[in-house]
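Researcher: Next sequence.
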Amino acid sequence: MALVGNVHLVTGGREMIEQVLETLGRTGVDSRGNPDIFIREYLQFGIDEARDVRERAGSRAIKEKGRVFIIVASQMTADAQNALLKTLEEPSDGGLFFIIVPSPETLLPTLRSRAQMLFLSGKAETGSIDAEEFLATTPSKRIEMLRLILPKEKEERDIGAIIAFLSSVERALARVSAEKSKAGLEAIYRARKYITDKGSLLKPLLEQVALLVP
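Model: Next structure:
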């Protein structure tokens, strides 16, 4: 298997790391215990994280194959994407980048144009919600379904899974008229905007989505 280009976008979350490593193995890259493979998960990938990646990307690889960066981010700020773009445009020899995000289509067009989409058959995460099933049922049933991504303990909440869910519902609404989907889309945008704020109440934000989507 050959990879086209050095920058690849993958849809998903942490569950896709193993898929990326297996893909690397099939291309001849030692994916186990390789000191040149940098793997990090971020709740929010900001400018400081982009600078850290840039600094690491400039270091020399220990092995001949070059450095590999596997970045999993629930969210990436626009400033971080622009800063990361400079690193992607001037990669070290043999450097590979895999950017795993819930919805690659939400990234800046300039970043997407620099990358190739990599479609991998990852396993569905535990606690995921099917968007089509969510939209097809009643508001009360939707609220019950939200329990899958809202565990009782706050520290157990997977923000990446929640953002992926919001993105999947947003994509499913593409078939609904703009007039009917307006309130639901606004609820999705609002939830995505405030979901990572300290002190934000995730349950009411998501319940608004359940009640307002058509």
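Model: The chain has a mean pLDDT of 84. The longest helix spans residues 178-194.
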